[in-house]
TrEMBL record:
<protein>
    <submittedName>
        <fullName>Probable efflux pump periplasmic linker ttgA</fullName>
    </submittedName>
</protein>
<comment type="similarity">
    <text>Belongs to the membrane fusion protein (MFP) (TC 8.A.1) family.</text>
</comment>
<dbReference type="GO" id="GO:0015562">
    <property type="term" value="F:efflux transmembrane transporter activity"/>
</dbReference>
<dbReference type="GO" id="GO:1990281">
    <property type="term" value="C:efflux pump complex"/>
</dbReference>
<dbReference type="InterPro" id="IPR006143">
    <property type="entry name" value="RND_pump_MFP"/>
</dbReference>
<dbReference type="Pfam" id="PF25967">
    <property type="entry name" value="RND-MFP_C"/>
</dbReference>
<dbReference type="InterPro" id="IPR058627">
    <property type="entry name" value="MdtA-like_C"/>
</dbReference>
<feature type="domain" description="Multidrug resistance protein MdtA-like C-terminal permuted SH3">
    <location>
        <begin position="201"/>
        <end position="265"/>
    </location>
</feature>
Length: 283
């Protein structure tokens, strides 16, 4: 599969009808606006009547844009080049929001998922560039590969009291191109780094994410900025330090006083309008 290639689509008959209906409504509103504009040049209609026609045209254009976006949301496209490892839905099956449809694996990179106990997780500097775990695959015995930190869960598993950690690395050329391969991760416990010489910014672990589109898997945060009378988010790359019990240290990319999104980062898009959530009593 190539990036952008169609993977699956929902029944879009109703959505296409809405798009055509709103295209017709926009054309009608545009013609009506032009007629009133011609009359306005002859002073045959009032300014308030022109404002109404302009508002009708703009509302029709907005309605069409919303319908077109809804139609696009019915199509699932590959976010990167890769191979479909598993199909998890059948043709004409009714699916729910958030339900997995297919498992797509990258052809150039792979993720290594393992767990760490709570006591070890808070002390290891798994993101330090000089402190990279080594990965061995059972399919390639005797060979170790250096991996880099990508992300981790912010809560422990209720049953095992462990954190899930995800590393990323280039896919070895002779590694079978399938998902779910087993192996082991070697972590050096004797190379724990010293604490930083000066205080660093610490943000919640859930605020840091690694977008799949990033070729270097650089960590990012959503920076909240003022845009006139509204607040909008901006994708901001950051350099991270150690993972502590309080959160992730930010070495560069943020400064004191910056506002960031602390939860739900995977549901947002660059430039999206947001508002500050005020914690109420009892919540």
């Amino acid at each position: 599969m190539k990036a952008g290639q169609l993977l699956a689509t929902l029944n879009d008959a109703d959505a296409k009808l809405r798009v055509r209906d709103r295209q017709t409504a926009l054309q009608l509103a545009e013609r009506q606006f032009q007629r009133f504009n011609t009359l306005a040049q002859r002073s045959a209609v009032s300014k308030s009547e022109m404002d109404v026609q302009r508002a009708n045209r703009d509302a029709a254009a907005t309605a069409l844009k919303i319908a077109q976006e809804e139609l696009q949301f019915l199509s699932l496209r590959a976010p990167f080049d890769g191979v479909i490892a598993r199909v998890q839905a059948r043709n004409h099956q009714v699916v729910a929001a958030g339900q997995p449809i297919a498992l797509l694996t990258r052809a150039d990179l792979l993720d290594v998922i393992f767990t760490l106990p709570e006591t070890l997780f808070t002390s290891l500097d798994i993101q330090n560039i000089n402190y990279q775990p080594e990965v061995q695959f059972n399919a390639l015995p005797g060979r170790f590969f250096t991996a880099q930190y990508k992300e981790h869960t912010s809560q422990t598993d209720a049953a095992t009291l462990t954190y899930q950690v995800v590393l990323t690395m280039p896919r070895p050329a002779d590694l079978p191109g399938v998902a779910g391969l087993s192996g082991s991760v070697r972590v050096r416990l004797h190379n724990l780094p010293n604490a930083p010489a000066q205080p660093l910014l610490v943000v919640p672990a859930a605020a840091v994410f690694n977008p799949d589109r990033s070729p270097t898997n650089q960590p990012h945060v959503w920076l909240v900025e003022q845009d006139g009378e509204v607040l909008r988010i901006k994708d901001r790359p950051v350099e991270v330090g150690r993972l502590t019990a309080q959160g992730i240290e930010i070495i560069s990319g943020l400064k004191p006083g910056d506002r960031i999104v602390a939860a739900g980062v995977g549901e947002l898009r660059d430039g999206e309008a947001v508002r500050i959530w005020q914690r109420e009593r009892g919540l």
